[in-house]
Amino acid sequence: MKDAAIYLRVSTIQQDYTRQKNELIELITRDGYNIKYIFEEKITGRNDERPEFMKLQQLTYNDIQRIYVWEISRLSRRAAKILDVCDEFADKHISIHSKKENIYTLADNGSWNATARMV
Length: 119
Prior knowledge:
Blueprint: E1 2-10, H1 18-31, E2 33-42, H2 51-57, E3 66-69, H3 79-91, E4 95-98, E5 103-104, H4 114-118
Parallel strand pairs: 1-2, 1-3, 3-4
Antiparallel strand pairs: 4-5
């Protein structure tokens, strides 16, 4: 079975990501992945100093093969940063799956998913 991580982020302390977490767990189970890590943060996506995200960035393909996020903007609020993050994980052969947009960055053979790249 392949392993996955969940990355959850909301922008303020008052916000809650319980619904997002539950739906991602359901999706991951349906996709046949084992949930190995869950990273949760309440911090703006404009902040590049996100402790839980930095832990996620330390993982390799030996740790996980896919990252699940509620929506692609959870990775960052800046488009250029999102592209950098997607490239960073693609270089490690780790695919990112965004539930809201229903896209994943890498195909099963490790090549870029053209639709995700365009989006």
